[in-house]
Design brief:
With 266 residues, the protein is of the alpha/beta class. It is 40% helix and 21% strand. The structure holds 3-hydroxy-5-(hydroxymethyl)-2-methylisonicotinaldehyde.
Length: 266
């Protein structure tokens, strides 16, 4: 039987991020991908590719989670963009009604289409209601500061401290991503599970952020955990998948490029 992985995430129509990325990553890693959509993001080509954001009705989100978990045996779930406090309530309720072995949280905090006030509500709700349910969390540089309460993260030591603090408040395994935000030739991620701290490094590929890299990392962790990997093994494979996906990135008519997972392992 093929292992099943569930993504609770938003649609990003151009295929660079969100649920589309999750499904491609799940497939590339040999898992059977399923999705419960939380929102629909449509970039606006007339306004600098800003995010146009539409939430999905909370009952419809709950229905999708009910459908996928009733039809399949799912013990590993990934949470991506939620976007509103109402969505967070709905997802927290649905998660609370079921038992999962692994809940991988990509704590997507900023959504460009939102008012700053609304985004703060959303960030707080995510921290209060979803973070405690997570078993594995993958914050980027910005999210590591927001979740740890640190004012700045400028070194691998800072990132390690953030990973420790986020583990303290959540109990989750933390994979904190330095990406291109930290100086140096390598993109460094820090894995911390409460016992061991491991730096995962790969040479930076350019200095620009590539759309969907974070989604791909968390989705790859999810797929590997679904197949039975340990958290550290899953993190190592995920780092390789992201590196390959950035190497084989896709460009289009926007000023940013997007990851492509299809070359990994080929
Ligand atoms: O990469 C973060 C992200 C996640 N999910 C959705 C998105 C984005 C960024 O655009 O649109 C749906």
């Amino acid at each position: 039987m093929t292992h099943v992985a569930l993504s609770i995430a938003g649609s990003e129509a151009t295929g660079g991020a969100g649920a589309q990325t999750d499904l491609k990553t799940f497939h590339q890693l040999g898992t059977f991908g399923t999705v419960a959509l939380t929102c629909i993001v449509s970039f606006d080509p007339s306004h600098d590719w800003a995010h146009r954001f539409v939430p999905i009705d909370p009952q419809v989100i709950r229905d999708q989670i009910e459908a996928t978990t009733a039809l399949h045996d799912i013990d590993t779930v990934k949470i991506g963009m939620l976007g509103t406090p109402t969505t967070i309530d709905a997802v927290a309720r649905s998660l609370g009604e079921r038992t999962f072995r692994h809940v991988v949280l990509d704590p997507v905090l900023i959504c460009k289409g939102q008012e700053p006030g609304a985004a703060l509500d959303t960030d707080n709700a995510l921290k209060e209601k979803i973070l405690p349910l997570a078993t594995f969390v993958t914050p980027n540089h910005f999210e590591s500061m927001a979740l740890s309460g640190m004012d700045s993260i400028t070194s691998v030591e800072d990132l390690t401290e953030a990973a420790r603090r986020i583990h303290e408040i959540s109990g989750a395994v933390v994979l904190a991503k330095g990406g291109v935000e930290l100086d140096g030739d390598d993109a460094v991620d820090v894995f911390h599970d409460g016992e061991q701290t491991v730096e995962l490094r790969s040479p930076k590929i350019g200095q620009e952020r590539v759309s969907g890299a974070g989604c791909t990392l968390a989705a790859a962790v999810t797929a590997e955990l679904a197949k039975g990997a340990t958290p550290l093994e899953a993190a190592r494979v995920a780092k390789d998948v992201v590196t390959s996906s950035i190497e084989h990135r896709q460009s289009g008519h926007a000023p940013f490029e997007a990851v492509y997972q299809g070359a990994y392992g080929r």
